């Protein structure tokens, strides 16, 4: 961790960096030593116990170091429209779930206490969604992680609704309670599917994206850049590469050496980085990750294991080293059963909600050419088995 002091003109702490030739060591105050051969990212001159900034500008041609301000991640300072949209969608899903439950023929008292139960259950659900990180992009953007989080929320909310109902009304209304819990689970999934489609479309058009740099310049960095370029809906815009200039660059937009990573990111306005760990020296890798994390930037580490499904990879530390464990490419029986139940439940609910639109589409198809409404085709499914696929023409 680097030592910080205050720039009187800007009022923000500055990154300091001691002697860059003492790689892998720290000062008595805990300063991180930048990798050998890199520019001093702090631009700081130390005199005894005092620390003063020596420069506040940089020449990209000569790569002169600067004093880089330590600030919160830029993403935290601006209004996050996608997150607000997701919160609103979740709130609508929870309200609609209780509306469906109250429309069932099951008994439910129309009292103040019963409405308090509804409000508390919605508040609990919202709190759990936040607690399990379901409003963080790194969770909500991974479908398997999002479904697992929503499942945990539902597992807590359903018995909580029953408990609150019994506590507030001194009665049990299991029909409404269970319907509300199941409907909440299903509608949260449906709502987030709608959100996923919307955000992908918006990002493909260049909105709500995150500017990032790639730290590394070998084949892995090149493949990563191509992947992010091909999948614009992922929401990342690569601004350039940070790497040592001793090999083939992944792109022409070279921003600086690893020791200058904070300056490079500030230059292009990036607030995230993809670090290709197998293309950096241990000293470079450690320095870059610590500097980015300390400055509040979003950091992704690429491990060079492309082609392996993310669901099979788990963090499994050994001693104090963060290692990855890869599961066999098979699903357990309970996972297959859970997936099947979820598929049928969500598909049935979506079919029910979409049935008016589908009926209208079928009518318009029939009126247009008097031909058949459906298109039927044989498809190959799991295990090579064929099945009939029905589609509107």
Describe the structure.
- It contains 9 helices and 13 strands.
- Helix 6 links the parallel strand 5 (210-215) and strand 6.
- It is globular and about 75 Å long.
- The protein has helices spanning 81-103, 112-131, 137-140, 143-169, 174-204, 219-230, 261-268, 282-294, 333-369, and strands spanning 4-6, 13-15, 44-47, 50-53, 210-215, 236-242, 254-256, 272-276, 298-302, 313-315, 324-326, 374-380, 386-392.
- 28% of the residues are buried.
- Helix 1 (81-103) runs antiparallel to helix 2 (112-131), helix 2 (112-131) packs antiparallel against helix 4 (143-169) and helix 5 crosses helix 9 (333-369).
- The N and C termini lie far apart (62 Å).
- The strands form 5 sheets. Strands 7-6-5-8-9 form a 5-stranded parallel sheet, with helices on both faces. The protein has a two-stranded antiparallel sheet with strand order 1-2.
- The chain has 393 residues and is α/β, with parallel strands linked by helices.
Q: Averaged pLDDT, please? A: 77
Count of discrete alpha- or pi-helical segments spanning 4 or more residues: 9
* Rg (CA only): 27 Å
Give the uncertain stretches in residue-range form: 1-77
Shape: globular
Could you describe the largest sheet, including whether it forms a barrel? 5 strands, parallel
Total DSSP E strands: 13
**What percent of residues adopt helix (DSSP H or I)?**
40-55%
Largest beta sheet: strand ordering: 7-6-5-8-9
Terminal-residue CA separation: 62 Å
Instruction: Please report which band the strand proportion falls in: under 5%, 5-15%, 15-25%, 25-35%, 35-45% or over 45%.
Output: 15-25%
Order of helices and strands: EEEEHHHHHEHEEHEHEEEHEE
Which class do the helix and strand fractions yield? alpha/beta
């Amino acid at each position: 961790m680097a030592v910080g002091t205050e720039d009187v003109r800007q009022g923000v702490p500055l990154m300091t960096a001691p002697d860059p030739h003492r790689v892998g060591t720290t000062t008595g105050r805990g300063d991180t030593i930048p990798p050998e051969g890199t520019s001093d990212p702090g631009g700081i001159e130390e005199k005894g116990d005092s620390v003063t900034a020596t420069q506040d500008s940089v020449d990209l041609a000569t790569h002169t170091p600067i004093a880089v301000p330590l600030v919160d991640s830029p993403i935290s300072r601006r209004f996050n429209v996608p997150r607000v949209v997701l919160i609103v969608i979740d709130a609508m899903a929870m309200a609609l779930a209780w509306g469906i439950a109250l429309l069932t023929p099951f008994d439910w008292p129309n009292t103040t206490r019963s409405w308090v139960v509804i409000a508390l259950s919605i508040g609990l659900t919202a709190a759990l969604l936040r607690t399990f990180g379901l409003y963080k992009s790194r969770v909500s953007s991974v479908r398997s992680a999002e479904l697992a989080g929503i499942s945990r929320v539902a597992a807590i909310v359903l018995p909580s609704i029953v408990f609150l109902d019994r506590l507030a009304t001194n009665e049990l209304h299991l029909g409404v309670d269970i319907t509300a819990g199941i409907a909440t689970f299903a509608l949260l999934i449906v709502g987030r599917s709608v959100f996923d489609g919307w955000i992908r479309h918006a990002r493909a058009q260049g909105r709500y994206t995150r500017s990032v740099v790639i730290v590394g310049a070998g084949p892995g960095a090149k493949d990563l850049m191509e992947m992010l370029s091909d999948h614009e809906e992922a929401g990342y815009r690569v601004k350039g590469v940070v790497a040592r200039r001793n090999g083939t660059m992944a792109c022409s937009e070279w921003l600086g050496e690893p020791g200058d990573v904070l300056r490079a990111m500030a230059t292009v306005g990036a607030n995230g980085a993809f670090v290709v760990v197998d293309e950096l020296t241990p000293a470079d890798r450690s320095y870059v990750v610590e500097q980015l994390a300390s400055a509040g930037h979003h950091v992704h580490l690429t491990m060079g294991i492309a082609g392996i499904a993310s669901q099979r990879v788990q963090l499994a530390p050994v001693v104090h080293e963060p290692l990855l464990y890869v599961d066999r490419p098979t699903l357990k029986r309970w996972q297959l059963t859970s997936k099947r139940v979820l598929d049928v439940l969500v598909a049935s609910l979506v079919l029910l909600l979409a049935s008016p639109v589908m009926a209208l589409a079928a009518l318009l198809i029939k009126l247009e050419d008097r031909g058949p409404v459906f298109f039927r085709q044989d498809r190959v499914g799991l295990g090579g088995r064929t099945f009939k696929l029905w589609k509107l023409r």
